[in-house]
Structure formats: C-alpha cells, structure tokens
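DNA repair exonuclease SbcCD ATPase subunit
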Amino acid sequence: MKLRALHLTNVRRFAGQTAALDDIGDGITVFSAPNESGKSTFFDALHALFFQSHASQNREVKSLRPHSGGAVTVTAEIETGEGRFRLEKTWLSRKSARVTDCATGRLLAQEDEAEAWIDRLIRGGLGGPAGLLWVRQGVTALEPDGTTTAEKRERETALAARRDLMSTLAGEIDLMTGGRRMDHVLAACRAELAETATATGKPRAGGPWKRAEDEVAHLSATRDTLAAQVAELSGALEERRRAEAERARLDDPDERAAREAALKEAREAMQAAEAHAARLKAAEREVTIAGLEHAAAAAEVKDLQGLEAALAEAQAAVAAAAEAERQAQAAHAARGAEEATAAQAVSGAEARVKAARAAHGRAQRAALARMAADRLGEMQARLEKAEAQGKHLAEARAQVEAARVDDTTLATLDDLNRKLTAAQARRDALAVTVTPRYSGDLRITLDGEELPEGTARPLQDRARLDLPGLGALEIDTGGRDTAEAARAACEAAERALREALEAAGVTTLAEARTAHTARQKAEAAAAQAAQLLASLAPEGMDKLRETVAALTLSAGAEQEEEAGDPDALARQLEEAEAAETEARATLDAARKALARADMGLSAAQTAHGQAREALESARTALGTETEHAEKTAQAAERLHQATEKRDRATAARDALAAQAPDMDTLRAELARADGAVKAATDRMRALSEQVHRLDGLIRARAEDGIEERLAEIEGQLDTAKARAARYAREAAALQKLEEALTAARHAARDAYFEPVKAELLPLLSLLHDEADIRLDDATLLPVALTRQGQEEDIEILSGGTAEQIAILTRLAFARLFARTGQSVPVILDDALIHSDDDRIERMFTALHRVAGDQQIIVFTCRQRAFSRLGGAEARFAIAMT
C-alpha cells in the first residue's frame, strides 16, 4: 500500500477549510513546516482514518474536532497492487465511511463494509505493519511502556504480529524448535496452563484449580465458623453466670437506700443555692437602676454647662460670618469689572477676524483660478493616455477569452496524461521484456520489424520472434486476463485524455501548453494595461473626466485684480484668530471668576444668616440667668442623691455575692447522684435483657448440634485440600513443559532472527563500524548494542543513539513486511530530534537506502536540518469549504 493524497476537512486548525496534501511519491516525501502548521494534525487524521471506526466518539476522534464544532472528514487516496482507491470517513455528525475506485469512480463499500475493507487492507490493526511503522511525535520506542489495559493489549498484539512475520520469513527452520509450529505447540501448552493458572503461577479465576482452592477456603471458613460457635456456647454460659451475680449486687436494699439518700441531699442543697441566687439577681437589678439614675443626673449637669459654651461659640461665629460677607461683596465687584473689560476685547477681535477672512477668501479664489489653468493641460494629457490604455485592456481581455486553456484545464490535462502514463506502466509491467544482443549481421524481427540492439521491448500475451538462420521463437506471457484489464485501463485513460483535449480546442498536449502560454501572455498584458489604467485614473475614467471638466470651468473664471498675497493674508488671518481665541479665553476666565465670586458671596450670606439663627437658638435654650442658675443647682442636688443610692445598692450586692455558694459544684453533685441512680436502674435492665438473650442463645446452640456438624465439615475439608494439591501439581508440570519448549526455541534464535539482522545490520553499519545487535527472545526487539567488542544495554544508551536504533529497526521491519507482501508506508512525525549533525546525515542515507522500494513520509518542523534529507518536498493547499 502506498499513500498518494490526504485531504482534511474541518479538522482542528483547518476549521471550515479543506487542507490537501497531494502528489505523494514512491520514495521519500518530506513535509517540512514550522510548529503549529498542522503536521501532527495530518498524522493524527491519517491514523484515525485507518484505526478509528466512523461511528466512534472516543477521545482520539473528538480531539480532531475544531473549537467551532461540526463534522470531521478525512479522505486519503492509496495505491495497491489492485489499483488506486479513495478512502473517506466522516465522524461525530453525518457519520459515514466510503471506499471508491479512483479509476472508475465506482463505490466499492460503505459504512460497516467500508470498515471491513480497510481492516483487510491494514492486516492486523495497531499491532500490524502500520502500528509498528507509524511513529507519532515524541515517541521513539518500538512499543508503549505504560501499564494501562490498552497499552498492554497493544504490546501483545504487536508481539504477535512480529512473531507471525518472523515465522513466515524463517520457513526453512519451521521445526519444533522455532517458527510457527513452535508457536502452535507453545500456544497449546499455554492455553491448557491458562485454564488452570495465571502467568505468575497462581490459580486462575473460574478455573478448576481456583474452584478447588475456593472450596477449601469455603470449608475452612465454615469450620472456623462452627468452631467459633462451639466456643461461643461455652462463653455464653460463663457470661450468664457473671450477669446474674452483678444484677443481684445492684438490687441489694442497702445499696439502693444509699443511692436514694445521696440524691435527696443533693437536691435540697441545690434548692437553697437557687434561692440565694434569686436574691443576688434582685440586688444586681437595684445596682443597675441606681447606675442609670446616676448617669441621667450627670448628663443633665453636663448639658446645662454645654449651653453656656454654645452661646459663646454662636456669638463668635456671627462676628466671623459678617466679616466674610463683607470680603465676598468686594471680590464680586472686582470680578464684574474684569468681565466687562474682557467682553469689549472679544468684540474687537471678532471684527478683525471677519475682515481678515474676507480678504483671504478673495486671494484664494484668484490663486485657484491660476492653478486650474496650469493643471488643465496635464490632466487632458492623462485622460488621453488613460483612454488609450482602456482600449489595450479590452483587446487583451478579448485575447484571454479566445485562449481556452487556463491553469485548471492544463492541470487536468497533465493529470490525465500522468494517469495514462501510469496505466501504460502497469500494462508494460505485466509484459515479458526482451532485449536483443547481436554478434553478427542477422537481426531478430517482430511482426516484420527489426528489434534494435540493446533496446528493451515489452511483449503482451503471445508474440512470435523470427530468428534468421534458426527459425522462430513463440512466447506466451500467460497473463492474458490481467493484460486485457491493463490494456482496457490504458484505452480508458487515452480516451479521457483525448476527450479533454477536444474540449479544450486542441489536439495534443503540446498544443495545449502553447495555448496556455498564449493565454498567460494575454493575461499579463491585460494585467499591465489594468495597472497603467489604475495609475492614470485611480478613481475611474468618469472621475478623471469630471476633474478635467471642473478644471476647464475653474480656469475660465474671472480673476480679481489686486487680491493680495494669499499666504500673507493667511498669516494675518491666523494672527487675528489667535488674538480672538486669546480674548475669548480671557473672557471665559473672567466669567468663571465672576461665577465663583457669585457663589462665594451667596455662601457668605447664607453662613451669616445661619450663624444669627444659631445665636438665637442658643439664647432661647439658655433662658434668663436666674432660670439657668436655678436649673443648675437642682441638677447638682439630683446628682448627689443618685450617687448615694448607687453606692448603697452596690454594697448590698457585694455582701450577697460574698455569701453565694459554688453553683457548679452543687450541680455536679446533683448530676452525680442522679446519674448513679439512673445508671444502676439502666444496668439492671440491661443485665436482665442480657440474661434473657443468653438463655435463648444457649438453647439454640444446644439444639443445633454444632459439635457433630464441625466433625463433618473437617472431613470434607481434607478431601478438598487433596483435590487442590492435584491441580497444583498439574500446573507445575505445564509450567516446566513451557520452560523446556522456550529453552528449545531460544537455542534456534540465531536462525530465527537472521531475517531481521540481515536487514538491520547494513543500516546499523552506517552509524557504527562492525556493530552487532542482540534481539530479545520474548519481544523480538533489540535489547543490546555491541560496539568495538563491548555490549551495552539499550536502556543505558544516549537518547540520540537509542532513537536512531529504534528508527533503523522500524526500517528493517518495513523491508521485511514488504517481502511478505504487506508493504505499508513508514511515517515519521518529528523523529530524529536527538541526533547530532553527523549522525542525522547518516540516518538520511539509511532512509534513502530503504526508500528504493519503500514509501517513507517525513513530517518535521526542523526545516534547516531536514533540508539535507533530499526526497520530494510536499506542500499542502487550503481551500474554503
């Protein structure tokens, strides 16, 4: 299988677009682009096409969907020995799968049938050729090293694929010591062992050994349960004796009377303490009330003293407000005078600007008339040139329309010609080729035509060669049905090319190229004429004509005499406008200052009024001096009486607090006595229930006959243990047989591994002289490298060396798969990231050595380093969907 084209529609960064990678060749194809260009997207999409069902919605499929959502479509064109086919899958929405024959356009399979067609193509899924040879970005190991179920299954499938491949190639040693026959024997041994034991030698779940072990465990558990019940019966008898003795002790009359007397004494002490606490709480209330009365009297005295201070502050505030009002009136008058002066200045500036603007306008009109007269000739000449280029443009476009072979038509013809060449090559590949080598004057003839010296001639079906002096040689290729199909494909390709040439109005591909060249020249002439026309009339011919007409009208206008110099008048206008702006700014500032003065005067007047009102309020609140003095004396007396009352209540409260008993201790004593009575009652009830329960248990155990049942179970347990031991011996014997077969297989590994090493060692010698590789018997993968007589494990090699060996091993397996008819492209996504400059060039040589009969596709972001790889350079095109 060879990949020829890959199209992605609405995949990741190509949302709403179709990215196409076409014309992928046979050898090395390099897709080199910067990071984030979509290289890994092509790799992941191709992987999903071959290994993910169109109905799947797993994480790998969902990762292809762009942020904008929608259906994801991946299409690939592949070429096999049976022809060229188009594979197409759509996921997530509008799910579908299709396989189409590219030569005929016939739909071969769809949906589940298409999935089955692809499965047959890739032969083995992820463990087969594609899973081994397709290297995802960041992965250089030959198999996953994770512990998940999927990774373990992938490792097992890959190992099975490698064993099948090696057994197929090593047919000459397919004896009991190696190859497929050994695989079958080992598989049978392991299958029988797997029914009984696991890989670690433990009993397998569901197997006879595990069932026997489970029976032993069940009987052992039953025996232990019965033994425990026997012990439980004995313990129950002893426990009932102890419970009855404790119940009798708790029910003794003397102990019962002592508990009740202690509870009565604790309750009386608690009642006396609660009465004392009530008296103390009443005293606390008296202290609180006296304190409130004292605070009210003190506040009254303070308020009376505050009225005097408030009157003095109000008098001072009235005097300050009157002075502030006088100053505000003076400032307001000054700002009013400044505003009037500024308004007069603005009026004068406006008159001067008006006069300057009128003079400048007259001068500008005169200057424009003179400029229009100067430009009129230039614009008329440009109009004439533009009209001439318009004629050239129309002629060139007519020539373009006459030449029917455009880029698309020529590309179609080239593609049909390539398909014809490929069909002819397939037809010739089925033929028998003869090449004459003459030593004399006589010549071999075919259908009366002499065959030239050293020229290969393909022969189809049957042919008769005339050999002068000898007779004739009849040749039968034996491939008539296949050759007939190849000729039919050639005829179809010739017919398609001929029809396309006729549609293009030419008879040969050379005429088509000539017509295409003529069209390109006409298009270039049209583009040049359009460019010149755009430069002469950037706003269009109509606009250019309007400009010429306007200049003609302006040039004919009357010019005023002695209009003055426009530039000088413009400067005068600017000076007048600047003076006007400055005058207006001065006026604005004066008006703002006047507004602030207005606000200041208003605020001062308001503050003066408020101060007078506050003074009147203070005088009213204070009253006459006689009334104020009388109120002050009365308040002082009430404060004295409140102080004495507060002191008496505080002393009484403190005396009661000193005599208060410890409430926490009394509560604890009461709780202890009450708890002792309740605990004794609860314990006696619990002991009665315990004795009742034990009586029932003892009767039940005595009736069950558990001693007899225990003896029966112990006999069954001995029988089950013997059966489990027999299965254990059988598993051990099978394990020994497997070890012996494996040892015999290891003895033949050199011949078994010969095909892999025959492909791998020549590639390895490009990097290391006289190097050897050791392959593991279990995984069939490299585990050690020998250089200069020293063997090194793969795990201790540098990252670059380990990566290079992994890539070379893949190339070797690719050659082996191709030898068995399972040719699959080698696809490397950003591989060789750890290789130095010298090693990477040698690896490039290894790739070219394999690429002679193997398709290799390289995705890389290392554009400078991989420019030395050679091979065909791929570019993808993007089109909107």
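thats it. The two ends are 29 Å apart (CA to CA). The first strand starts at residue 2 and ends at 9. bye
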